[in-house]
Amino acid sequence: MDAFKAFKACVPIACSPKLYITLVRGIPGTRRLHRRTLEALCLRKCNRTVVRQNNPSIRGMLQQVKRLIVVETEEMYKARKQKEANHKALRPPLVISHPTRPAASESA
């Protein structure tokens, strides 16, 4: 995830028209204000992603719960999904051919 964070740091969030918001930490144990903010963003379960317009009110909500979420631009989201799809893609089977052993003579 370190490379992803480095990539995320290079892309400015302010210039993207849409934000992809993913809940990465659990809701139990958080403040009531944070729970209500996540509910307003329609984030109810971990690892769920919602798309919101990039405006000051949404960015203020994201600032409140920034330790619970990951915010991505459209390019970042598509790149991450493509990487996950490539990782899960079917690979050709691994074929191992063992050399045959010569038959042992039975002279004893």
Distance between the termini: 64 Å
Major sheet strand order: 2-1-3
Quickly give the structural class. alpha+beta
Reported for the largest beta sheet, the result is: 3 strands, antiparallel
CATH architecture: 2-Layer Sandwich
- The parts where pLDDT drops under 50 for at least 5 residues are none
Shape: elongated
The structural domain count equals: 1
Helix content: 25-40%
Order of helices and strands: HEHEHEH
Protein name: Large ribosomal subunit protein uL30m
Region (Disordered): 80-108
GO molecular function, one term: structural constituent of ribosome
InterPro entries: Ribo_uL30_ferredoxin-like_sf, Ribosomal_uL30_bac-type, Ribosomal_uL30_ferredoxin-like
Structure notes:
It is elongated, with a radius of gyration of 24 Å. The protein is an alpha+beta fold. The protein has a single domain (about 1-85), classed as 2-Layer Sandwich (Ribosomal Protein L30, Chain: A). It has a three-stranded antiparallel sheet with strand order 2-1-3. The protein has four helices and three strands. Belongs to the universal ribosomal protein uL30 family. This is Large ribosomal subunit protein uL30m. GO terms for molecular function: structural constituent of ribosome. One of its GO terms (biological process) is translation.
